[in-house]
Amino acid sequence: MILSNFSTENDKQMTSEILEKKEYLLHWMYDFIEDDDEPAYLASDVLECDKVLTKFINTLSESATKSDYAWVVCQVEAVVKALNVLNAKHANQLIETDQREDICALIALVIQNAGHGVEQDITEQWREW
Description:
It is a single chain. Helix 2 (16-35) runs antiparallel to helix 3 and helix 2 runs antiparallel to helix 5. It is globular and about 45 Å long. It contains five helices and no strands. The relative contact order is 0.16. The protein has one domain. It is mainly α.
């Protein structure tokens, strides 16, 4: 498996459950690259996805504003739209069904960690993946 130095250096604010969920997601994205002769994306693209997710996680973990649900929703919209752009760069193949489900679960977990309940898929209204 290809390992990213970015993750280990920037995961200080993540709970172990969030970190585990993110690593699981990235593991399968890297695994796809290794198992495909002509993958639709590269390790550098997975690293970019990692950076987008890590920024979201750290923003929600570190901000005093995280108690404001409307602010949290704005952060979710921003991360989803950033992932839309990244996925579009790769003919919508970077984020497949399994990754979509894992990313949605990760986002929900981060929101819960920020102190808010999540009853439905908050990403759906902006998500193109």
